[in-house]
Write a structure and sequence with these properties.
This protein is an all-alpha fold. The longest helix has 28 residues. The chain is 74% helix and 0% strand. It has one domain: Ferritin (Up-down Bundle), CATH 1.20.1260. The protein is elongated, with a radius of gyration of 16 Å. The model has no long low-confidence stretch (mean pLDDT 88).
Length: 147
């Protein structure tokens, strides 16, 4: 029988923060690419959503006197480099949409695993986790039209 390692509110919030930061890095790394104006507008909107959720996570942490670790700078650099490599060649819109869908899917899987390992009833953290999952679901739907 496998024992599930339960997570506390601070761990869930930290994971959520890193997911929003990865989403922002992914979007920012493609914004200087030539793409359809509608795709750029969608990505800028998604970037703002991630920024808002990140701000909410920081606000909850601050209220509780927690310091949450930021995403490792090496992870940021590797993500940027991988994006540049993947965008080489034709049909940038489709490649960007594909990368965004993959990133949002990874974020959703991570978020769902976290929620299933969350032992506490913490309304603020649960609500923000659900908001991120809903955002990622909407982002995937939005990007499907650009594949």
């Amino acid at each position: 029988m496998r024992v599930i390692n339960m997570k506390n509110s601070k761990q869930i919030l930290s994971s959520l923060l890193k997911t929003t930061q990865m989403g922002q890095i992914g979007i920012r790394s493609v914004l200087d690419t030539s793409m359809r104006p509608s795709l750029r507008k969608a990505l800028e909107s998604q970037l703002q959503e991630y920024d808002n959720i990140e701000s909410e996570a920081h606000a909850i942490a601050t209220q509780r006197g927690w310091e949450l670790p930021e995403l490792d700078p090496a992870v940021r650099a590797m993500s940027n480099m991988m994006t540049r490599m993947k965008l080489a060649g034709q049909n940038a819109d489709s490649k960007i949409a594909d990368m965004m869908i993959q990133g949002n899917t990874r974020g959703m899987v991570k978020g769902l695993k976290d929620i299933h390992q969350f032992a506490q009833q913490d309304e603020q953290v649960c609500a923000l986790s659900q908001k991120l999952l809903d955002t990622e679901t909407a982002n995937i739907r939005q990007m499907q039209g650009y594949l």
